[in-house]
Amino acid sequence: MNSEVYVIGRDSVPQYLRLEAGEERTLTLIVPPGNGGRLVLEADLVGPGASLDLAGLYLCPGDERLDLRLLVRHTVGGCVSRQLFKGLVGGTARASFDGLVYVAQDAQKTQAYQENHTILLSETARVESRPQLEIYADDVQCSHGATTGYLNPEELFYLRSRGIPEAEARRLQMVAFLAPVLRRLPEPLIEEIHACLS
Questions:
Q1: What percentage of residues in the chain have a pLDDT greater than 90?
Q2: What's the pTM value of the predicted model, to 2 decimals?
Q3: Which residues are CB-contacts of 117 (< 8 A; sequence separation ≥ 6)?
């Protein structure tokens, strides 16, 4: 399996993927603070048994403007795609997520999952999330979902009641939220992201 990590503003990020029969790819996209703009990625699963595992996290604590656009097309049957994107948006930042999973008429036995979850760190931050499914086959397992909210005040209270200072408690909440994506990264990059949260 080919596992790849791309940091926006540092690495050249592919804009198009084509997965042939039996090909598996795992990509993780990282948008560190201070990086905005539009990120577009399209993927075509064109061979039976192809598998795409796509994840990402975005950190927009200031005045960033971030536009994520993802399109995954299942053109043949028996393929799997997974998408998980998590973000922290604060300050006056704006982030948008547009994701579309397309399943062609002949793409039976498709499995496709898409999730986008964001935590707002200020009342002036804004997020728009539009996960979408366009399905023309009838024997599929597909789902999509999105959530946007604030750090859980009950969790924060619990941590504070255990003697953890508020800033550290908030940081722990953010790390826990990002954990499903963080665990895909090499240790130096995890430490770099942790430093951004302090």
A1: 89
A2: 0.94
A3: 85, 86, 87, 146, 147, 148, 177
Contact 140/172 with Cβ under 8 angstroms? no
Give the position of tokens 């090909």.
23
**pLDDT digits over 35-49, tens only?**
989 999 999 999 999
Q: Are 112 and 72 in contact (CB under 8 A)?
A: yes
Name 82's Cβ contacts closer than 8 Å, sequence gap at least 6. 52, 53, 54, 55, 112, 113, 114
Cβ atoms 25, 4 nearer than 8 A: yes
Q: What is the DSSP string of 11-77?
A: S---SEEEE-TT-EEEEEEEE-TT--EEEEEEEEE-STT-EEEEEEEEEE-SS-EEEEEEEEEE-SS
